Amino acid sequence: MERRRIGAATLEVGAIGLGCMPMSWAYTASQRSGEDSLRAMHAALDAGASLLDTADMYGPFTNERLVGRVLKERRRDAFVSTKCGLLVGETHIVANGRPGYVKRACDASLRRLQTDVIDLYQLHRADPEVPIEETWGAMAELVAAGKVRALGLCALGVRAQRRAGGGMHDATVRQLERVQQVFPVSCVQAELSVWSPEALEALVPWCASRGVGFLAAMPLGNGFLSGTLTPGQGFEPDDVRARHPRFTAEMMAANQPIVVGLRRVARRHGESVTAAQVALAWLLGQGRHVVPVPGTKRERWATENCGAAGLRLTDADFAEIAALPPAQGSWD
Length: 332
Fold this sequence. Notes:
Order of helices and strands: EEEHEHEEEHEHEHHEHEHHHEHH
Radius of gyration: 19 Å
Strand content: 5-15%
Largest sheet: 8 strands, parallel
Shape: globular
Strand order of the largest sheet: 3-4-5-8-9-10-11-12
Oligomer: single chain
């Protein structure tokens, strides 16, 4: 698989990554299987998708332990990314950016991941009670201590961005400018996909101009862009899509032209090419610093997603995708 740089020239990953969150968090619990998830990670690594993206809050903690089982066997094949800064309670999630906590969280992640060093340590969310420079400074000390190789920042969620006013990612860019004065940012992670392209306006160019990597989260639109979901199918209560405005039966039906368009492009490239692979190839075409990180807990989908790295879209393909109707349904 093609390799891409994450910030510093010495950090490289496969052009497609693997988001491990669905294995332990946010999606239907009844469909989770530890053994299936392990097979998915091994399949991704076999295909060259070296980036395994997790976080201490997924589970919480169980996702890192699952990834750790693979790292124990295949540490040299993997580039491990995890996150800190969010605490999961019974009914809510809160940010904690206190320097002491960040250092303890890192040590705990290292134990669960069964590794001596985290390749990319990301701040999941800034703590409004702690200056972000203090949090980032503590993370920089982890690099100096040899526990972490590089630092990354996750973009604010859509609702937080809108409350902050201005452009969709203006608040995140302001955070990036502040922490960049403390220690170099190697990577930014934010949602980016065919049906959520907002990061292309400011965030992706900001990264490109500074040699910063960009991890495209939710590159398949929570599964919608794969074309495997049926309008009105419903989701179990513990699945985040059960409460998501774009996954009502009405909105899923209204947004079907996007999937149809992706399938039309896929057919031009061969019978085995899928809508999901076209959606991922579209992301790869947004810049050499962009690495899509599709999440899955199934070996089949991990293998299919990795196949997108070899798909080359034409100018006509990009033009056709650009002409697709924008997605309907508010994220709020």
